[in-house]
Design brief:
Layout (H helix, E strand, L loop, with lengths): L12 H5 L5 H22 L3 H18 L8 H14 L1 H13 L7 H13 L14 H9 L10 H4 L2
Helix pairs in contact: 2-3, 4-5, 4-6
């Protein structure tokens, strides 16, 4: 199997499409995992030149997904969630457990996927495909019995 299509590699978009993300969202999540891993490596590098070079290589990725100033987009929400898991893991475990037990039906699927990815990236849990929240369309059709348009749309745009 080609590593580009490896469904077990969190730096590949397929990893996230198998967890409910739409293609554009999956690209963003895979890029975030790549940047997150590079930042972790950069923290451990002994020489400033190596660290600078590595961080320079990920800068275009960060720029690609960055929202305009004053806007908190999907990349920034994921970055905030990762930071929260790193700084307050006990509190985040409590919040995660509450959400898992009593998830607000108005919680957007993209926000749930962000919580799960941040938890996994920080080593505080795993994100098996079965934990992905259904899309609002799936929730609607399962509660009303109606058929909805199943045409996938990029979650980054659709779930805002």
């Amino acid at each position: 199997m080609n590593a580009f299509h490896d469904p077990t590699d969190p730096t590949q978009p397929r990893y996230y499409t198998e967890r409910g993300a739409f293609p554009l969202e999956a690209e963003m999540r895979a890029d975030y995992a790549t940047v997150h891993n590079a930042r972790k490596i950069a923290e451990r590098l002994q020489f400033d030149d190596n660290r600078t070079e590595l961080l320079a290589r990920i800068t275009p990725i960060v720029r690609r997904w960055a929202s305009p100033p004053g806007v908190t987009g999907p990349w920034e929400r994921l970055d905030n969630a990762v930071r929260n898991w790193q700084q307050t893991p006990r509190l985040m475990h409590l919040i995660h457990n509450q959400i898992t037990d009593h998830r607000d039906p108005t919680m957007l699927p993209i926000d749930w996927r962000t919580a799960l990815q941040a938890r996994e990236l920080t080593g505080n849990g795993t994100w098996p495909p079965s934990l992905s929240a259904p899309t609002r369309d799936q929730q609607h059709s399962s509660t009303t019995g109606s058929q909805t348009d199943a045409t996938p749309q990029p979650a980054i745009e659709r779930d805002r």
